[in-house]
Amino acid sequence: MTDGREIRLTPGAQRILDVASELFYWRGIHAVGVDTIAAESGVTKRTLYDRFGSKDGLIVAYLEARDRRWRDLVTARLDAVSADPVRRVLVPFDVLPEWLAPSSRGCSFVNAFAELPEPEHPGRQVVVAGKKWLRDLFRELLAEAGIADPDALAVQLLSLHEGAIVCYSMADEANAAASARAAAEALVARAVHQS
């Protein structure tokens, strides 16, 4: 999410974004052209370009919308969970089953990262910012829990989290989220005990 603000879309632009989001996720960003998106949205290409500027603009809007939904899911759960700092650190793992259920093609961000190899691509920048956000959230929550070295453990938790997403989709491991959560809980408990 580039600036933290949600963009209000007209109903037509929202329809374009919804269609593009489905197509980008299930078929791949490069496999879907603006002709297909416009046709399946019931609009002209001109309307698509008027609303999003370019295919890259639409890609960014797709990734930012997914990022907003993910962050909103995590922060809502953080707001609802007790003040127990260890439980708070595990929230991103707790929401994974809900997040992954409709996502059998894996993480849209990992998929986009693979399809957008140019570091300056605005879509890739959204992906990188989203993953850094999660790492930084882990770091912040670990510091609140009194962990002595939150930086190193934050990277470990991010790795477990991302691994669970990949295992869920690629290895058809329905229990990947629960297994990753158990490993994360053990790491955090050990770190709390050592602090």
Automatic annotation (TrEMBL):
SUPFAM superfamilies: Homeodomain-like, Tetracyclin repressor-like, C-terminal domain. Residues 33-52 bind DNA. Residues 10-70 form the HTH tetR-type domain. Pfam families: TetR_N. PROSITE patterns: HTH_TETR_2. InterPro entries: Homeodomain-like_sf, HTH_TetR, Tet_transcr_reg_TetR-rel_C_sf. GO terms for molecular function: DNA binding. Keywords: DNA-binding, Transcription, Transcription regulation. It comes from the Bacteria. PANTHER family: HTH-TYPE TRANSCRIPTIONAL REGULATOR YJDC, TRANSCRIPTIONAL REGULATORY PROTEIN. This is TetR/AcrR family transcriptional regulator. It comes from Pseudonocardia bannensis.
